[in-house]
Amino acid sequence: MKIFRSLLLFLSMVVVSSMVLLNCKSKSSGESSDKTGAKTTTETIGPNQLTQAEIDEGWMLLFDGETTKGWRGYGLDAFPDSGWTIEDGTLKCLHSGTGEAGAGGDVLYDKMVKNFHLKLDWMIEEGGNSGIFFLGQELEGKKIWYTAPEYQILDNFSTHIDNTLGVDGNRRAGSLYDLIPPVPQNAKGAMEWNSSEIIVYEGTVVFKMNGENTMEFHLWTDEWNEIIANSKFPDFNPDFAKVYKEGLICLQDHGHATWFRNIKLREL
Description:
Jelly Rolls, 2 domains, 15 strands, 15% helix
């Protein structure tokens, strides 16, 4: 009887050990279980790629990590010969130390969009400043910011002047530049990757930073017109962000090293 019990105990231990090994193997292959116990598989991809789910939802990859296909300089027919480069699968703006003058100028994706969801990752050098423009127009002799609202990119943990200028942090990373501050202000520091999203749909605009909604505002409304009227922008262009219903997505050259990747767009 003792021998029988010992054998039974031994067999139980073997079964338990086998189940543990199978479970570990399942987890290492990317499998998990939902609340019903059903197996699910998480699709893992590298930078500058689309998942099958994103493809099915209609996402476009705007940057392939290897070429500047689809991109050109603001006001130019081609991509700038200097100031920008492709580095380790990123679209990089080079440091020039010349502020807005830049070395290559702003670059844009050559497609007018109206209702859309934009996603991208960015990283900024210490003390750096850059931005993402949307609904931009190309006016002869004018910079992109004469027409386009800007999702601000900044090293919030530096002595850059925009950390102290503006109102309530409306020049810090994730802000609608010089107009509305983000809540929360959750940008990471220099040389760390941040993920940003801009959603535009029939005048409603949502900003996201690192997975969190940071603001919502509504173009062309009385409230919006008042915000613009009380800013500096009408001094440069009375039509700033007021009449443009579709436009260009543009990445800023503000003279600081900035890296971009995973630039994805879905038209809504």
